[in-house]
Design brief:
This protein is α/β, with parallel strands linked by helices. It is about 35% helix and about 15% strand. Bound molecules: pyridoxal-5'-phosphate.
């Protein structure tokens, strides 16, 4: 008899987005003439930019020739892309990484979920709350999170981020083995200053804590003082692994490409106290379980670093940030409490009148035919908020704001 991994059964089966999709579909069936605008799920809408698609076309044509055909590539990714990353994403910020510290993947979701394989099942974890659900759920699946009660997992330290603390998580008063940070943040759209981020690096250095830092939205940062990478903080390369993605930066949600940075200095201990390089361990893991992102995707990613690619990516980010501004302005004018949207494509809206986030989501759907995401789906501290994304088309975003004006 094959025994199932029962940790999977602990997961609440209403994966947030599936649950929302069901409610929205039910509404559409009962209101066939309603034109529903989704500011809910975090997917982009702008097409790939020409620099990227031209590069992909060239890669496809190469593959059709005997000389240019590529089969399995290196598991850690092609050197041309890893070198472009080192040169463009890090060197200009004074961060010196070696190409062997970069691991190309098929998007950041897989690696943010998989990285926990490198550490023992009984490490303690801490997450800012609310948060991207992948971090906790991937820990639940191997039994590290414990059991759930009142929306909280027993072995997870929650670091609340709410309007009360200006969305700045407080350093825990005890040691935690692993901390997940995501900045700019999904879902709150807020950021951490260098000073605040330094506190986490110092905590990690002092407590021998490992930080998993998700920088999927770094390209949206507008304020020149906000760090784009945790390695801008001194000492971080000893304690932090960082995740990047081309999904939100360059519209790769369907193309699939991202990368993980595992510096040579990052280690974790054996029970006997020996320090093990996580770079070596991750390399071994990838060689065993991953066969690389496609050549075409990696050529696509490389094209985002050409002068034309950079300019086109900037334009598309400016487009979304324009939406974010429209949304912020409208909602603020309506007297609502609005957070985020200045260095991230997410608006975190305080639900008025103390209503629950699920109830407000339904009211917005029924009264304005606009879809948002209830904050509680991102963790207990998300209750009382909803998330709106700036990833819509400009017309849809403007129309959604007109409707909210009318409704509220
Ligand atoms: C969208 C997103 C990612 C990226 O996912 P991909 O797998 O690269 O498409 C990673 N982290 C967060 C917080 C995200 O919102």
């Amino acid at each position: 008899m094959a025994l199932v991994n029962e940790h999977f059964l602990k997961l609440p089966n209403n994966y947030l987005f599936a649950d929302i999709a069901k409610k929205v579909n039910a509404f559409k069936v009962s209101h066939p003439n309603a034109d529903v605008i989704s500011l809910g799920i975090g997917d982009v809408t702008q097409p790939l930019c020409p620099a990227v698609t031209e590069s992909m076309h060239r890669a496809v044509d190469e593959m059709a020739t005997e000389k240019g055909f590529r089969g399995y590539g290196p598991e850690q990714g092609y050197l041309f892309l890893r070198e472009a990353i080192v040169k463009n994403d890090f060197l200009p910020r004074g961060i010196h990484l070696d190409a062997s510290e970069i691991f190309i993947n098929d998007g950041a979701k897989s690696d943010t979920g998989n990285i926990q394989e490198l550490v023992r099942w009984d490490n303690s974890i801490g997450v800012t709350d609310p948060i991207y659900p992948v971090y906790i759920d991937s820990n639940v699946m191997i039994g590290r999170a414990g059991t759930i009660k009142d929306g909280k997992w027993s072995n997870v330290t929650y670091l609340p981020c709410t309007a009360e603390n200006d969305f700045i998580p407080e350093i825990p008063d005890r040691r935690v083995d692993i901390i997940y940070l995501c900045y700019p943040n999904n879902p709150t759209g807020t950021v951490l200053s260098k000073e605040e981020l330094s506190k986490w690096v110092n905590y990690a250095l002092k407590n021998d804590t490992l930080i998993f830092y998700d920088a999927a939205y770094e390209a949206y940062i507008q304020d020149p003082d906000i760090p784009h990478s945790i390695y801008e903080i001194k000492g971080a390369r000893k304690v932090a692994i960082e995740f990047h993605s081309y999904s939100k930066t360059a519209g790769f949600t369907g193309v699939r490409c991202g990368y993980t940075v595992v510096p040579k200095e990052v280690t974790a201990a054996t029970l006997g106290g020996e320090r093990i390089s996580l770079n070596q361990l991750w390399h071994r893991r990838q060689c065993t379980k991953f066969n690389g992102a496609s050549y075409i995707s990696q050529r696509a990613a490389e094209a985002t670093y050409t002068p034309a690619g950079k300019e086109q990516v900037r334009e598309s980010i400016a487009y979304y940030m324009d939406n974010a501004r429209t949304m912020r302005d409208t909602l603020t004018e309506l007297g609502l409490e609005v957070y985020g949207g200045q260095n991230a494509p997410y608006i975190w809206l305080k639900v008025p009148n103390g209503e629950s986030s699920r109830r407000f989501f339904e009211q917005m759907l029924y009264n304005a035919h606009v879809v948002c995401t209830p904050g509680v789906g991102f963790g207990p501290s998300g209750e009382g908020y909803v998330r709106l994304t700036a990833f819509g088309k400009r017309e849809d975003c403007a129309e959604a704001m007109r409707r909210l004006r009318k409704w509220l």
